[in-house]
Write a structure and sequence with these properties.
The complex is a heterodimer of chains A (377) and B (598). Chain A is α/β, with parallel strands linked by helices and 377 residues long. Chain A has 14 helices and 15 strands. Helices cover 24% and strands 34% of the residues of chain B. Chain B has 5 domains: 176 residues, 3-Layer(aba) Sandwich (Rossmann fold); 85 residues, Elongation Factor Tu (Ef-tu), domain 3 (Beta Barrel); 74 residues, Elongation Factor G (Translational Gtpase), domain 3 (Alpha-Beta Plaits, 2-Layer Sandwich), CATH 3.30.70.870; 107 residues, Alpha-Beta Plaits, CATH 3.30.70.240; 111 residues, Alpha-Beta Plaits. The chains are: A alpha/beta (377), B alpha+beta (598). Bound molecules: guanosine-5'-triphosphate (GTP), iron/sulfur cluster (SF4) and magnesium ion.
């Protein structure tokens, strides 16, 4: 039977709230809350020991800002965690860090606990754009963090990039991309800025107080990012993700491959067999209330599962393995989706070869239009 | 004896305060409890309340003790003021002996004041002129009173001055009604004759007929005959119309009420028909109503083809509520099976559309409306068409005729210039100017119906800063240089987008339509070429460039369900579009042609 081999841990604390961000986090400075939060995390993991594998292949600590925990809490967290789970051979252990606030001391601590991958929230290398985004770090902070990490021996680093920031020009994008390339990380996540409902950016864009980059320009930026990173030896392996050889994010690949995972902490989601469940967005309740197992659980129908499989799989440039689909559902993808994908195959929007179904790279920019149209009813 | 009955309707130009005046009467007579009085209480359709206009006539019975201490039964029918619903007014008038003609004290006489007055006079109704809204600062009761006197030749003291807002003058109005409106003429002792003046569909009880008993009486359990449709039915329930229906055992000559036979088939009950007893040897029908001629036709198609039967059913029920509605099946290559529906005007079309969507929960597409043209063919045949797809160049047509109207425009003298200019643009033929007083005139024009039915009134309102009013009736047919304008999407003709247009305006329209469609058609996965053409000649073209970006940047373990729902929603949105060949067309595209000047 399938067992969960991938763990996500959410640290819902940030020093300040960025106006575009829709992740759940609060900006408390109260360390006792953070300490309690950590102990509850360890309690939570314990109750799922029956479905968690003895050999964990990936751990991802994200947020929020994990490094906003003080050194002691971090140590407690990592010690406690590693007491309860066992990392498999060749594991991947990622921690997100904020270049404005992570210290050398904390990076060292991560290294000591066996963390072998860092994801740095760099976003852009221009002061003005960082300010627009409401980020508190400077371009120098990115260099400092990156170089310190390298010095400490981290050889798998992701840099986050946001593009189509209001006011961004193709020249400022090129500047940022060049700086990125100079640092030469193993992995880059490059996101088109999204205006999520409920965020300050969303409200401001509705009021036209923030001028969005228009779609046609945005798509040119996206194409440029793809081309540029390609020329620097990065493989474009998912809509927004690029990596050097063999440095893809295993943790995220597991998600796109429809693998099981468990999420711990506020707002974290889990997926196992037919179920998805998630914790509420509320630190106080998380600390104060007794856990119930599988909160907010919902069951996926077979159709939901097939649709999610397709939706996630086609995000990858390599698409969906026909064999894997067949193994998972017991029938071929052609059998389920033939009617839906016919016209897209004919027009070369989708490509089906002997082993995979994938999006024509030229049509990636309209992924939503295509995928929404082929979902089963 | 029915000496104590008064049947009357309230008629006026739109917005002069008919329904509000009715509110006050309902209040004073205690027909509706104080707490249940709202604005325009009788406008009980959601759409009426929302838009603040009356769409359907509404009958209600009130009881009132007059100064002579006697109790009177007052049957009031509130009518709509908008020109599209004139038919409602004429039907109501046939059930009454008197009419209250309401005139807004600040606006004075307007176009529908005249047309509705003439309707009432033709039926020999006793007219009570009422000048309303005297509480308004801009009210000019004396000036308007003089207009009214000149118009109907009444005396000063025949006019009642009211404010439906404050309630002033309502008591005197009720007294006047009792005094001057004659009681109904019919007799209880004669054989039963009742006029069906309105009907509605009740989802529990089936068809409900609103009747006025002219002669004789009708009782629960009677076996009745509907003369024109030749239907024999049993009276399951009768009663009078208060805010709700109130059951009675008998309705006698002069009384207004309702009749339920339990028939579920909407077609059985026809407005204008006469109810009599099945047992009579000779059955004499009352003068019914003139069959009404729709002004415009448009295709109505279900968005999803499987809703066709539902649409058919709903139209049938709606027709019971709205006897001016006519329809025939229609078949379109682009839109599948649907109906060609005839309307009295564009507001009527809009209302029918809304009611189908709201009351019958259907999603429907309306195509571009057309008036009825006469095609004279070489072989001497004359064919009437109201659908552009029936106009084919190879049909050996020697002449096309289009309907003309006589229009009266009432305006302040200062706006005559711009109105004349507008009329010229609309191929209007000027006849004469009548002075109502030194500031206001009636302009008389002939127009092709197709030139005024769409947006003429809006234009008129805007150039006259809201003052001009407009009324018309169809008179005759005259030759016209009409052509068919085809619209092509990616090279394919879309029959439901074609229009019949005057030759001189075709180029202009073609360009505007292409431009408008470009605004409305969302970018899709492929380029969409839009072309307008006459025969094989393309006169305008444009392209909607293929969609370049529609992609969710982030999708991780935390938001998979949400992202799936997002895509599913997008899929649903697509379903609301109509797939025409390779192109997805939003429903509004079909009506966009109406708004090409915006
Ligand atoms: N100040 C003032 N306003 C009034 C009076 N009577 C009506 N109104 C207002 O005039 C507007 C139109 O009133 P309605 O009663 O809906 O007019 P109507 O003649 O029934 O209109 P239609 O049924 O659409 O033809 C509303 O806003 C009323 O509140 C009045 O005596 N004084
Ligand atoms: S630091 Fe990261 S998680 Fe925190 S608010 Fe900013 S973007 Fe969101
Ligand atoms: Mg009204």
């Amino acid at each position: 039977m399938e067992i969960i081999e991938n763990v996500y841990i959410h640290i819902p604390f940030c020093d300040s709230k960025c106006p575009y961000c829709d992740f759940y986090s609060i900006t408390t400075q109260d360390n006792s809350i953070k300490n309690k939060y950590v102990s509850k995390l360890l309690e939570e993991i314990e109750q799922y020991c029956d479905i968690i594998s003895p050999n964990i292949r990936s751990v991802y600590i994200g947020g929020g800002t994990p490094n906003s925990l003080d050194a002691l809490s971090l140590e407690n967290l990592l010690t406690g965690l590693l007491n309860q789970i066992h990392l498999a051979e060749g594991y991947e252990f990622t921690v997100e860090v904020n270049p404005g606030s992570v210290t050398e001391e904390k990076l060292k601590l991560f290294k000591e606990f066996g963390i072998n991958r860092l994801s740095v929230g760099s976003q852009t290398f221009l002061k003005k754009e960082l300010k627009t985004l409401g980020r508190t770090h400077s371009p120098q902070d990115i260099f400092r963090t990156f170089n310190t990490a390298r010095k400490l021996g981290f050889n798998n680093i992701n840099l986050d990039l946001i593009f189509s920031i209001p006011g961004q020009t193709i020249n400022s994008l090129i500047y940022t991309l060049n700086k990125l390339a100079e640092l030469d990380p193993e992995h880059i996540s490059a996101y088109m800025l999204t205006y999520y409902e409920g965020t300050e950016f969303y409200r401001r864009s509705v009021k036209k107080d923030l001028i969005k980059i228009v779609d046609d320009i945005e798509v040119e930026y996206y194409d440029f990012v793809k081309e540029f990173l390609g020329s620097k030896g990065f493989e474009h392996y998912e809509l927004s993700n690029f990596s050097k050889k063999n440095k893809m994010s295993n943790h995220n690949l597991n998600t796109w491959n429809f693998g099981a995972y468990i999420g711990l902490g506020t707002s974290a989601h889990s997926f196992y067999l037919d179920s998805r469940w998630f914790n509420d967005n509320n630190v106080k309740n998380y600390i104060d209330l007794k856990f119930n197992k599988y909160p907010n659980r919902s069951t996926l129908s077979l159709t939901d599962k097939k649709n999610e499989y397709i939706m996630l799989g086609l995000r990858k440039t390599s698409g969906i393995s026909l064999e894997n689909y067949n193994n998972f559902f017991g029938n071929t993808i052609d059998f389920d989706f033939r009617k839906k994908i016919g016209k897209y195959l004919e027009n070369n929007y989708l490509i089906l070869d002997e082993s995979r179904l994938y999006l024509n790279p030229e049509k990636i920019n309209i992924y939503n239009s295509i995928v929404s149209d082929i979902l089963l009813d | 004896m029915n000496d104590n009955i008064r049947n009357f309707c309230i008629v006026a130009h739109i917005d002069h305060g008919k329904s509000t005046l009715a509110d006050r009467m309902l209040q004073i007579t205690g027909t509706v409890a104080e707490r249940d009085i709202k604005k325009q209480t009788l406008d009980d359709m959601e759409l009426e309340q929302e838009r603040g206009i009356t769409i359907k006539s509404h009958a209600i019975r009130m009881e009132h003790t007059a100064l002579d201490k006697k109790k009177y039964i007052l049957n009031l029918i509130d009518t709509p003021g908008h020109v599209d619903f004139t038919y409602e007014v004429s039907r109501s008038i046939a059930a009454c002996e008197g009419a209250i003609l309401v005139v807004d004290a600040s606006q004075g006489i307007e176009a529908q004041t005249l047309s509705n007055l003439y309707l009432a006079m033709e039926q020999d109704l006793e007219i009570i002129p009422v000048i309303n809204k005297i509480d308004l600062p801009a009210a000019q009761p004396e000036v308007v009173a003089q207009q009214v006197i000149d118009l109907i030749g009444c005396d000063d003291d025949d006019i009642i001055f009211t404010s439906a807002k404050t309630g002033e003058g309502i008591e005197s109005l009720l007294e006047k009604i009792v005094q001057v409106i004659p009681p109904p003429k019919g007799s209880e002792d004669k054989p039963l004759q009742a006029l069906i003046f309105d009907s509605m569909y009740d989802s529990f009880r089936g068809a409900v007929a609103y009747i006025k008993v002219v002669n004789g009486f009708i009782q629960k359990g009677d076996k009745i005959k509907l003369i024109n449709t030749d239907q024999s039915l049993f009276v399951e329930e009768i009663g009078i119309l208060k805010m709700e229906r109130v059951k009675k055992e008998t309705l006698k000559a002069g009384e207004v009420g309702y009749l339920i036979t339990g028939t579920k088939t909407a077609k059985d009950i026809k407005v204008g028909d006469t109810v009599t007893l099945d047992s009579y040897k000779t059955k004499v029908s009352l003068p019914g109503y003139q069959d009404i001629k729709p002004m415009v036709f448009s295709g109505v198609f279900p968005v999803s083809t499987e809703d066709y039967e539902d649409l058919k059913d709903s139209l049938e029920k709606l027709q019971l509520n709205d006897s001016s509605l006519v329809y025939l099946p229609e078949n379109s290559t682009a839109l599948g099976f649907g109906f060609r529906v005839g309307y009295l005007g564009l507001l009527h079309m809009e209302i029918v559309h809304e009611r189908l969507e709201r009351e019958y929960d259907l999603s429907v597409i309306n195509t571009f409306p057309s008036v009825t043209y006469k095609l004279h063919k070489q072989n001497g045949d004359i064919e009437e068409i109201n659908n552009p797809k029936d106009l084919n160049s190879n049909d050996m047509i020697i002449k096309i005729e289009e309907p003309y109207i006589k229009a009266q425009i009432i305006t302040l003298t200062e706006h005559i210039g711009p109105i004349m200019k507008l009329s010229l643009e609309r191929r209007g033929i000027y006849h004469l100017t009548d002075y109502l007083d030194e500031n206001r005139v009636v302009l008389k024009y002939d127009f092709p119906l197709s030139e005024v039915i769409f947006d003429f009134f809006d234009k008129l309102k805007s150039i006259s800063r809201g003052y001009a009013s407009f009324d018309y009736e169809v008179t005759d047919y005259q030759p016209a240089d009409m052509i068919k304008l085809d619209i092509m999407l990616n090279g394919e003709k879309v029959d439901a987008l074609a229009a019949i247009i005057h030759k001189d305006k075709a180029y202009h329209y073609g360009e505007r339509i292409c431009k408008k469609l470009k605004e409305i058609i969302p970018r899709q996965m492929y380029d969409v070429a839009i072309q307008a053409g006459i025969g094989s000649r393309i006169i305008a073209r444009t392209t909607v460039k293929a969609l370049r970006k529609n992609v969710t940047a982030k999708c991780y373990g935390g938001d998979i369900t949400r992202k799936r729902k997002l895509l599913e929603k997008q899929k649903k949105g697509k379903k609301r579009m109509k797939q025409i060949g390779s192109v997805e067309l939003p429903q509004e595209a079909f009506l966009a042609l109406l708004k090409i000047d915006e």
